[in-house]
C-alpha cells in the first residue's frame, strides 16, 4: 500500500493510518480516541462519507483538529468515556494510544460498550530489534517506540501475545491481526506464520476487534 492521497481533498495519511482507514466501511459513524490533530477523521469524513467524533486532551492537538473541521471533544480517556452511550458508534478507533493511558483494561471495556467493532493499533515490545537492544543492556527505541525511557508518554509496554490475552480477558474477539514492520508495512512473514511469528517480526500491529457475546 502506497501513500494514500486524494488530490481533490488534498488529504495525505501516514502509512499505518492508511490501513486503519481501509478497515472502516464508508458511511460509518466513527469515534477516534486519542485522535491527535484529527488526520484520520478528516480523511474518513472527506473521502469516505463517514461521520466522526474525536477525543483528545492535548489542547494544541484539539486546536489543530478544529482547524481541520473535525468535531472533537476534550476528555480524559481514563475516566470520562462514560459520556458516550452504549452502542452509540459503529466503530471505535484507538490508534497508538492504549499504551499511554493509565487504565488500559478499563478503556477497552468502555470501547466494548460504545461499539460492537473496534480497531486498536499498538507498538510491540516483543519485536526482535527491541529484544536485541535489551540483550545489549539498553532500552528499546524505534519508529514505533521513539522516545527515551525518561521522557516517554508511554506508561505501559507489552508484546502482542500478552496484549491479546488482555483482549480475551475483556471479552473481545480478534477478527483480524495486521502486523506491521518499522516502516508501517506488513513484514515478510514466513509461509504459515503464526501469532508467535508476528510477535517476533512486527514492530506494531493493527487489530480489528469485536465484542464477544
Task: Furnish the topology, listing elements before pairings.
Layout: E1 4-6, E2 11-13, H1 15-22, E3 29-33, H2 39-47, E4 51-55, H3 59-67, E5 72-73, E6 91-95, H4 104-114, E7 117-123, H5 128-135, H6 160-170, E8 172-180, H7 195-201, E9 204-211
Parallel strand pairs: 3-4, 3-6, 4-5, 6-7
Antiparallel strand pairs: 1-2, 7-9, 8-9
CATH class: Alpha Beta
Shape: globular
Number of domains: 1
Uncertain stretches: 1-10
Largest β-sheet summary: 7 strands, mixed
User: Can you give the helix content as a percent range?
Assistant: 25-40%
Which CATH architecture is right?
Answer: 3-Layer(aba) Sandwich
Provide the residue-averaged pLDDT.
Answer: 81
Structural class: alpha/beta
Instruction: Please count the beta strands (DSSP E, at least 2 residues each).
Output: 9
CATH fold group: Rossmann fold
Q: Report how far apart the termini are.
A: 34 Å
- The ordered H/E elements are EEHEHEHEEHEHHEHE
Strand order of the largest sheet: 5-4-3-6-7-9-8
Kindly report the name of the CATH homologous superfamily: Vaccinia Virus protein VP39
Protein name: Methionine biosynthesis protein MetW
GO molecular function: transferase activity
Pfam family, one: MetW
Keywords: Transferase
In short:
The protein is 30% helix and 22% strand. With 213 residues, it is an alpha/beta fold.
Characterize the structure shown.
The chain has helices at residues 15-22, 39-47, 59-67, 104-114, 128-135, 160-170, 195-201; strands at 4-6, 11-13, 29-33, 51-55, 72-73, 91-95, 117-123, 172-180, 204-211. With 213 residues, the chain is an alpha/beta fold. It has a single domain (4-211), classed as Vaccinia Virus protein VP39 (Rossmann fold), CATH 3.40.50.150. The strands form 2 sheets. The chain has a 7-stranded mixed β-sheet, with helices on both faces. It has a two-stranded antiparallel sheet with strand order 1-2. The longest helix has 11 residues, at 104-114. The radius of gyration is 17 Å and the shape is globular. Mean pLDDT is 81; it is low at 1-10. Keywords: Transferase. It comes from Propionibacterium cyclohexanicum.
Amino acid at each position: 500500500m502506497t501513500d494514500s492521497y486524494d488530490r481533490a481533498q488534498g488529504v495525505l495519511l501516514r502509512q499505518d493510518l492508511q490501513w486503519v482507514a481501509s478497515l472502516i466501511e464508508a458511511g460509518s459513524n466513527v469515534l477516534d480516541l486519542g485522535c491527535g490533530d484529527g488526520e484520520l477523521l478528516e480523511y474518513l469524513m472527506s473521502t469516505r462519507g463517514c461521520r466522526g467524533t474525536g477525543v483528545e486532551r492535548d489542547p494544541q492537538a484539539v486546536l489543530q483538529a478544529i482547524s481541520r473541521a473535525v468535531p472533537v471533544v476534550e476528555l480524559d480517556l481514563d475516566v470520562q468515556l462514560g459520556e458516550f452511550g452504549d452502542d452509540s458508534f459503529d466503530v471505535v478507533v484507538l490508534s497508538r494510544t492504549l499504551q499511554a493511558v493509565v487504565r488500559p483494561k478499563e478503556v477497552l471495556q468502555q470501547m466494548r460498550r460504545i461499539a460492537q467493532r473496534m480497531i486498536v493499533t499498538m507498538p510491540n515490545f516483543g519485536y526482535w530489534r527491541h529484544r536485541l537492544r535489551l540483550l545489549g543492556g539498553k532500552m528499546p527505541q524505534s519508529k514505533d517506540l521513539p522516545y527515551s525511557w525518561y521522557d516517554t508518554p508511554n506508561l505501559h509496554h507489552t508484546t502482542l501475545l500478552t496484549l491479546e490475552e488482555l483482549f480475551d480477558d475483556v471479552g473481545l474477539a480478534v477478527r483480524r491481526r495486521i502486523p506491521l514492520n518499522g516502516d508501517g508495512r506488513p513484514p515478510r512473514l514466513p509461509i504459515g506464520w503464526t501469532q508467535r511469528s508476528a510477535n517476533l517480526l512486527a514492530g506494531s500491529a493493527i487489530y480489528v476487534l469485536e465484542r464477544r457475546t
